[in-house]
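$ run holo --ligand "nicotinamide-adenine-dinucleotide" --emit tokens
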Amino acid sequence: MLAKTKTDTSKATQTQRSVQRKVDADDRKKAKSKPDGAMQAGARKYPEPPFPKQHHPKPGEEWQIKPAPLYDAPFWQGSKKLDGKVALITGGDSGIGRAVAVLFAREGADVALVYLSEDRDAGVTKQAVEAEGRRCLTLRGDVSRRPFCRRAVAATVKQLGGLDVLVNNAAFQVHSADFADLTEEHFDTTLKTNLYGYFHMAQEAMPHMKPGSAIINTGSVTGIDGSKQLIDYSMTKGGIHAFTKALSGNLIPKGIRVNAVAPGPVWTPLNPSEKTAEDVSQFGAKTPMKRPAQPEEIAPAYVFLASSQCSSYITGEILPIVGGY
Ligand code: NAD
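-- output --
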């Protein structure tokens, strides 16, 4: 009886070692082969790190970023998903906001852009929207200030004839390596821009919105995972995710959907105007895809969440676009 048990066990041991030998050989082969490059699964090839070392002043201007962020999605065919709509996009002059403005226009929307002080970037985005055959209003101001938000919404409604889609997207982000060095001024600027800005804009926009309207908030992977050098910023992004879910329930009776997009690293002025030049050169390298997204790879999610044709049964969701987990 004992002998039989011993025979059975040794066979299983042999099988285990045979499996192990095969995997060891595979590992040796893999160690000698070239490391995998960045993942390229897009409609065109996207830039990969290392990027030129650079560090720009806040708030960050897109015309200074090398290589230039890709936002115009030349392969994207418009199909009237936002025909006749009016959208207001905060932080719409550059980065994700610029790419969203262009795709919204290609889908038939007129667009108002809010930005802090980057007049040159705003001019480029305005031209790009107009080249799609739509109207564009540029509004320079500070979203942390309620009176400006009120004026921005009023100007949009007056000059573009209504407001159907609000994209809350403006943000302030600067790292602090040591928590003890995070000043109250820094903390306050982040919270006032990222949280109060979204709150003011949503409350001012809401009375003008009809059933079928949509609010889209830009969150972040840092609001899901946290980021040790972006404590204040991560707090606001987690807050934006909770704001999205809570407000979505509140606005269901009004027929207004509220969702968020939570990007991982995206090649925009935000990070080159806050990280060290060394960190900027490796931006996005640690994601499974080994590169940052380009703005035009994020913007389609906003079209999807803005259009009643695509997402009429979706509200209160956070859509992460992070290059793999
Ligand atoms: P960006 O620098 O192009 O956009 C930030 C915008 O915020 C600018 O247009 C700026 O004018 C505006 N802004 C800043 N402070 C303002 C204020 N007080 N009033 C009005 N406007 C103000 O960078 P981006 O990466 O396109 O950022 C867009 C959004 O994406 C932000 O909410 C950001 O937190 C989020 N995000 C970015 C990344 C990334 O890696 N780039 C990752 C996750 C989330």
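-- notes --
The longest helix spans residues 2-32.
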